[in-house]
Amino acid sequence: MKKLGFLFFTFLALSLIIGCATIGGRGQEIRLNTEVVIVGAGGAGYAAGLEALRAGRDVVIIEKHPTITGGNTGVAGSAANAANMPLIRSLNMQITDGERDFIERMINEYWDYPDYIVRGWARTLRPVWDAHRAAYPALFFDHPSLHALQTYYGGSGVAKPSFVHRLAHEALAAFAWLEGLDGPGGGGWLTDRLPAAVGATWRRSHTPNFYWGTLGANFFRPVEAAFLQEGGRLYMGHRADTIIMENGRAVGVSGTTVAGQRFVVRASRGVMLATGGFAANREMLNQHNRWWPEGFMGVGHTNLEHIQGDGIVMAARAGANLIDMEWIQMVSALGSVMEGGAITNVMMINTDGNRFIREDHRRDLLCLGIITQPGQIVWGIQDGHTIDDILGGHTWGANIPFDQWVAALPAHRKMADTLQDLASQIGVPYATLRGHIDAFNRAVEGTAPCPFGRMVFQYPINKPPFVAVQATANIHHTMGGVDVNDNMQALAVGGGVIPGLYAAGEVIGGVHGDNRLGANAITDILVFGRHAGKILGGPELRP
Ligand code: ADP
User: Fold this and answer.
1) In terms of pTM, does the model score above 0.85?
2) Which domain range does residue 103 map to?
3) Does residue 166 share a domain with residue 286?
4) In b/e form, how buried is each residue of 1-20, taking b as 16+ CB within 10 angstroms?
């Protein structure tokens, strides 16, 4: 009942706000004044909005979509990375030999790294890891410095080390902040599971309990509710197209409403872009892609159609520098749906039944593997361990029983009580599949190394039911965007900041490098959104 009342309140607030925004009559320009204007009601925008509001600012968020808030955050794969040793301890997760070796490799590889922040992660990690493995040799391990090293390594050393440091070190605090928000969903909102999302390369991906619906809704709805409840103003159906510059300073934004009216929002403290990336904008993808083969910017994508890179275009027009624009991420998915999100116990085979890659690889290499298979289609094979023990009985990102989920797309999802039956359903030779499953299971048991060098293992694939999920490589995330400094201030092409202009979330570059680790995006928007909001809540910074 409490939940219904709360939803009603949210609906009422949204209706009033949308209603207010159309006051003024067709043809007249809408004018608003505030201290902080945030463009984009997605994850980063709301996190920033709430922090700035709580610092005492008057905050307006404008959102171009007339009815949908949350942006890509709302349809994200519903996993968020943070190093969480208390949870690892309570789950008594066991470490694999490959994982032990990888920690050693990370420390050794970055021990003498020229950048002092990166070197610092390796040197911080050494004594902590040594003490851990001496005291608990079988227990899985994590630490913010390891998360940082893997993020940096997973993005080929292209990211800004100070950004990676913030991402990894403020992640758990951001989750605690989210869990602590008032409202019916506050508290107990994360599950006590810790799978590895596709491309996460480590078992640190927190998943939600679906209180707030499916997928990434759980990561922005509580913030949205708090923002509206605490006096934040949201104007939907307002698409910004211009950053208003006066004497070199960003002083507001202007644009057009869905009803066709021009609007102007002036902001005395700052303008923040939280407009997301450009993965649904084919033209921009083709313009910036340097890495994927020609034609691949035309494959499917996992984004909402209105995620078009508007903020990047506006910022560039206002003189902002753009970085990392050529790095475009693909992920294994079926159309717009993330398939087999937890890679922990998934083995991938091609349509001949052959395994072709270590499934715990970074996303770019995994997708490169997929697009070189026959038909560019693969099957993710998983078993009852994924269903019961890793995902807790529901599918990734939604609280749907697995059999119903499989039945919803019978051509692309298959389920069977035996591997033999599964092999015949997907049309691959059983002997081939069996051979790969046996090799996978030997690696889990530690009796033989994984022929593909995989390190993330938890269970053998031997528990019915067996499930096969078809996947292709789909465009998912854009790593590049507005160049900002550590205070989230936009940097100008010629150097120096653009006074008054801030950005956070997928709209910025520099956080992930050339490849984002799976489940780092939600962490990114919460950590950097909050950070930007706190900066905007404070006094003006000197340029
Ligand atoms: P992030 O993950 O960085 O928070 P999201 O994709 O979740 O980004 O959210 C971005 C939001 O910004 C979306 O709701 C999108 O509709 C909104 N948006 C994008 N461009 C504009 C624009 N020009 N004016 C207003 N809102 C915009």
Assistant:
1) yes
2) 80-189
3) no
4) eeeeebeeebeebbeebbee
